[in-house]
């Protein structure tokens, strides 16, 4: 009988402790949500709630960021200073490095700061700027990769007319069109995205302000404008992809007719890295944006987002440029 009384009393106290603990967690959660609502911003839920894991992720991001900065800065420096690297191909590589330098700086420093400070709050204005620069630079990346594929196509398929077609003035106008088109896409995205009424709790299950996650916070059909912009940009991106594919069909059909094994190897060493960069960036971006967003994203979702935001700017200098013998020689001369 005494044991039964002891068990019942213990169960009574344990149940009350658990109830108090759950009520305490709910109250804390409600306080946090109230603060987010009052501060008129967003809460970024990154990779982990554990502070030690956040520091580990911050260090990993810092290493990748420093590698990306170093590689892209080296390419910008040697293509600017070396007089032998002033052809259109190296001009476009310099623009790609400048773009990658900017692209990785949009998301990674904010993620590092949030992890180290254990404060995942971003203001409304910060989120607008991040969406603008991210969408602008993402589209600019697609556009510049398309221009680079056309440059390779012209160099291999029309070598006698290459200097006329890829005149320095034409290259400059092409890059102006690329950067302006990126800015226009960013303006379209922020105009459509931030005209939405956010009536759900402003929690973004991502380490940056991602457009699909923002759409999930809408409670009405006013997100149709964003879908229209995304559909339009998807059609244009598809046109760019078809253009790149056709360029490489002509490139490979021309290359296979080259009798010299050395010339064949040189052409493939130039084309295949560019083709890998295009395929990797487009495939991971499409996978991330076409996948349905959930309230509890998996590790795979976060890894895909890293693959198209952090990895390409880090690998592009190594894949596209620093394997090039002329770039290696220019780097040795600079050092």
The CATH superfamily appears as Rhodopsin 7-helix transmembrane proteins
Helix content: over 70%
CATH class: Mainly Alpha
Main sheet strand line-up: 2-1-3
CA-based gyration radius: 25 Å
- Overall shape: globular
* CATH architecture assignment: Up-down Bundle
CATH topology descriptor: Rhopdopsin 7-helix transmembrane proteins
Count of strand segments: 3
Number of helices: 12
The low-confidence parts are 1-38
Membrane topology: Multi-pass membrane protein
Domain G-protein coupled receptors family 1 profile: 71-320
Function: Odorant receptor.
GO molecular function: G protein-coupled receptor activity; olfactory receptor activity
What does this structure look like?
It is found in: Cell membrane. One of its GO terms (molecular function) is G protein-coupled receptor activity. It is a multi-pass membrane protein. By secondary structure, this protein is an all-alpha fold. It has a single domain, classed as Rhodopsin 7-helix transmembrane proteins (Rhopdopsin 7-helix transmembrane proteins, Up-down Bundle), CATH 1.20.1070.10. The chain contains 12 helices and 3 strands. A 3-stranded mixed β-sheet has the order 2-1-3. α2 packs parallel to α11 and α6 packs antiparallel against α8. The chain is globular and about 65 Å long. The N terminus is likely disordered.
């Amino acid at each position: 009988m005494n044991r039964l009384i002891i068990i019942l009393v213990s169960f009574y106290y344990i149940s009350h402790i658990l109830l108090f603990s759950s009520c305490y967690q709910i109250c804390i959660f409600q306080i946090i949500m109230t603060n987010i609502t009052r501060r008129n911003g967003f809460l970024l839920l990154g990779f982990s709630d554990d502070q030690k894991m956040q520091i580990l992720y911050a260090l990993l991001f810092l290493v990748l960021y420093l590698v990306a900065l170093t590689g892209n800065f080296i390419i910008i420096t040697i293509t600017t200073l070396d007089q032998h690297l002033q052809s259109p191909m190296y001009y476009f590589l310099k623009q790609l490095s400048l773009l990658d330098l900017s692209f990785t700086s949009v998301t990674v420093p904010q993620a590092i700061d949030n992890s180290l400070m254990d404060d995942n709050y971003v203001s409304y204005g910060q989120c607008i700027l991040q969406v603008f620069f991210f969408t602008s630079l993402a589209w600019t990346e697609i556009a510049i990769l398309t221009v680079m594929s056309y440059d390779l196509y012209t160099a291999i398929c029309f070598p006698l007319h290459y200097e006329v077609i890829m005149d320095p003035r034409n290259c400059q106008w092409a890059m102006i069109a690329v950067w302006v088109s990126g800015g226009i896409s960013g303006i379209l995205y922020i105009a459509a995205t931030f005209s939405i009424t956010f009536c759900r709790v402003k929690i973004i299950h991502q380490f940056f302000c991602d457009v699909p996650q923002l759409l999930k916070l809408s409670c009405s059909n006013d997100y149709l404008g964003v879908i229209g912009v995304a559909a339009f940009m998807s059609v244009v991106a598809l046109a760019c992809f078809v253009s790149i594919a056709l360029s490489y069909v002509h490139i490979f059909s021309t290359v296979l007719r080259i009798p010299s094994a050395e010339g064949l190897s040189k052409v493939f060493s130039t084309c295949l890295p560019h083709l890998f960069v295009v395929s990797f960036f487009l495939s991971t971006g499409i996978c991330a944006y076409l996948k349905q967003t959930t309230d509890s994203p998996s590790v795979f979702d976060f890894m895909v987002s890293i693959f198209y935001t952090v990895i390409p700017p880090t690998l592009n200098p190594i894949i596209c440029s620093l394997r090039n013998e002329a770039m290696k020689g220019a780097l040795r001369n600079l050092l």
